[in-house]
Write a structure and sequence with these properties.
The structure is a single chain. By secondary structure, this protein is mostly helical. It folds into 2 domains: 221 residues, Rossmann fold, CATH 3.40.50; 125 residues, no CATH class. It is built from 12 helices and 4 strands. Helix 6 links the parallel strand 2 and strand 3.
């Protein structure tokens, strides 16, 4: 690999780290410190993105970005509603902080749609992205305007791509580019979508072992002398409702009051276990789902389509990648939108966070 390609790869890796962390902040710093909502959080930025060394020139930026804050998808929504069916509409509750459940109605849907907060996150990210890279002596405004945007067909990711593009083009007088939308069905080759139903995982064991440690105290406190039939999954769902409902309403959800401040670190670790053992270093084969994206990344860095992407036998759509209108190699700025799960697979394959 040439020195230029190597510097591009380092730049790409740094962008992967930074873009995984950047998001708007809904709550105050003090509240965020005690309320870690795992993958449902509106996270603090990791920090100011450092400029490259003065001897280096950024001539290409390749970013991999997850969607903004979104509502629950079908699987999580079903689980949450099963939990609520056990506890909503009771005549009496063992604790005062549970009384709101007597006439509670679930309103978060099940589509996983991008929330208003998520739209704002991605617009702001697009604005910041342009300030960082465009017209600053690295990438020209003209080359930035010719940005390539792609997304999986998930509505939240498509909407995130559009919001980012709006922010990126803000104030330029140029219309936002339409993202290339890549289908993510079970039989579609898509490097931005995790699709390996037979992938082995130890996450149910790891997570349940941890839940057996910390949820009994919460169950005992909330149920008191009344057995609502709650289990450890229900407790975690209450925590998810705290995060999701707070993001939707921009006010602190009453579900947050069901937990002690000290218990939020347990919720955070529960989420860490889920991601680590399902999509990252705890699942040795999870990184295999990032091979296709890595080959496309190397193709963009080197320009060698036949050597990388066209040799891939995993998730690359070889026909589409051979078409310059669907996989161009002449751009200075590329951004692809994917899920947090697939982002983890790519990060793990690249050896980040070791």
């Amino acid at each position: 690999m040439t020195s230029t390609a190597s510097s591009r790869l380092v730049e790409t890796s740094l962008r992967l780290v930074t873009l995984a962390s950047i998001a708007g902040l809904l709550f105050s710093d003090a509240h965020a410190a005690t309320q870690p909502f795992t993958q449902n959080s509106a996270q603090l930025p990791e920090g100011e993105y450092p400029s490259p060394p003065s001897r280096c020139k950024v001539n290409q930026v390749i970013a991999l970005q997850r969607n903004g804050a979104s509502g629950p998808g079908a699987e999580l929504a079903t689980s949450i509603q099963d939990t609520l069916a056990k506890i909503v509409g009771k005549s009496e509750y063992s604790r005062s902080e549970m009384k709101f459940l007597s006439n509670y109605t679930y309103k978060l849907g099940a589509s996983g749609a991008l929330l208003a907060h998520g739209t704002t996150q991605l617009k702001d990210l697009g604005v910041q992205f342009r300030k960082t890279y465009c017209g600053t002596g690295s990438i020209s405004e003209k080359d930035c305007t010719n940005v390539w945007v792609a997304s999986t067909s998930s509505p939240s990711q498509v909407d995130s791509a559009k919001a980012w593009s709006t922010g990126f083009m803000q104030g330029t007088g140029t219309s936002s580019p339409s993202p290339r939308i890549i289908a993510e069905g079970a039989h579609d080759n898509n490097t931005l979508a995790a699709n390996c139903p037979n992938l082995a995982s130890s996450v149910p064991i790891a997570q349940q072992q941890w839940r057996d440690v910390w949820t009994p105290a919460v169950l005992q406190r909330l149920q008191g002398g009344t057995n609502y039939g709650l289990n450890s999954t229900d407790i975690v769902n209450f925590a998810y409702m705290c995060a999701l409902e707070s993001l939707v309403t921009t006010e602190l959800s009453p579900f947050c009051g069901l937990f002690l401040d000290t218990e939020w670190s347990y919720v955070e670790y529960d989420g860490d276990l889920g991601k680590y053992y399902n999509h990252a270093y705890g699942a040795p084969l999870a990184r295999s789902q990032g091979v296709g994206y890595a080959n496309e990344l190397l193709t963009r860095l080197s320009g060698l389509l036949a050597f990388y992407a066209q040799r891939d036998q995993t998730q690359v759509n070889n026909t589409a990648d051979a078409d310059p209108s669907k996989f161009p190699l002449d751009r200075s700025v590329y951004i692809d939108f994917t899920s947090d799960d697939q982002l983890l697979a790519v990060m793990t394959l690249l050896g980040l966070f070791l």
